[in-house]
Amino acid sequence: MAERKGFFKGAAKEVSITSPAYSVTEITANAEVIAGVKSEVMAGAFHGIDTEVLTVKEAKDLVQQFLEKKVK
Hints:
Blueprint: E1 21-23, H1 24-29, H2 31-34, H3 39-46, E2 53-55, H4 56-68
Antiparallel strand pairs: 1-2
Helix pairs in contact: 3-4
Protein name: YqzN/YkzM domain-containing protein
Domain YqzN/YkzM: 20-70
InterPro entries: YqzN_YkzM
């Protein structure tokens, strides 16, 4: 089989890609863009967390959990 130009021989390097982390204040200010919810919903989702920095995925996960939580 013909070898494709531009590819290298050998094992590929494993690269660790990390998501950027943002302050809770930054994420809350951009709640509609990030998660499609108002900042008040984002503030409710973040109530009681111990961290000041989150990734976008973590923020979305917290909002989703907050929205699915049963009201007593």
